[in-house]
Specification:
Elements: H1 3-21, E1 26-30, E2 47-49, H2 54-62, H3 66-73, H4 75-87, H5 91-94, H6 119-128, H7 139-142, H8 150-162, H9 171-174
Antiparallel strand pairs: 1-2
Helix pairs in contact: 3-4, 3-8, 4-8, 6-8
The chain binds heme C.
């Protein structure tokens, strides 16, 4: 076998390995917004993925959910979030309209943790779980690719804000 043939072989093997490195498509890149666990305040291990939507990437930079204002203004668009809420069986504990069942209502003004007044805080509880009964739902935190990518959580939050029935300020609209 000539050297150049061997070299070509090595190059193509390396290219293949490089390709495999992208399977699961997690970039080593960290997100800019610092997400912390509601359980223990440690950083949540959320990474930028190749398949993350532009909205998810915007959220990583700004800590602001691009769907919230859009869905509050357009209930028809908000249904995309409601679909995800049902698809992942959040309905089992929170009810079909998120008004509460065995889990608390998410559309009234009684928050389990004050930080749920912001989309970043609510994202942290859904993504990373809570001290009293909510498991982690984000695929990176749960270590399960079948679970929620960032975009699905953002759509759910947008729908929850659009469905809000409580009084008081709505700081998520001022963000
Ligand atoms: C096994 C039952 C269960 C399921 C399934 C569940 N939750 Fe929860 N959820 C809870 C409980 C219990 C709490 C209260 C946790 C606490 O106080 O620490 C909670 C709290 C929350 C809160 C904060 C509510 C507040 O008033 O501050 C949000 C937001 C939330 N859940 C979203 C979701 C989403 C989104 C899903 C689906 C991806 C989901 N939950 C699935 C049980 C559940």
């Amino acid at each position: 076998m000539s050297i150049s043939h061997k070299a070509r072989q090595i190059i193509s093997i390396m290219a293949m390995l490089g390709g495999f490195g992208l399977v699961g498509s997690v970039n080593a890149e960290d997100v800019e917004c610092k997400f912390i666990s509601t359980i223990d305040n440690n950083p949540l291990p959320i990474k930028v993925h190749e398949d993350d939507t532009p909205e998810a990437k915007e959220f990583y930079k700004t800590c602001k959910n691009p769907y919230t204002k859009k869905y509050v203004a357009d209930p028809e668009a908000a249904k995309a979030g409601k679909k995800k809420f049902a698809y992942y069986s959040c309905t089992q504990c929170h009810g079909g309209n998120a008004g509460g069942q065995t889990g608390p209502s998410i559309i009234d003004d009684r928050w389990q943790y004050a930080k749920h007044l912001t989309d970043k805080g609510m994202f942290e509880s859904i993504a990373g779980g809570t001290p009293a009964g909510m498991p982690a739902w984000h695929r990176d935190v749960a270590g399960n690719p079948e679970l929620l990518p960032t975009d699905d959580i953002l759509k759910i939050i947008g729908w929850l804000r659009a469905s809000y029935q409580g009084g008081g300020d709505k700081p998520w609209l001022q963000e």
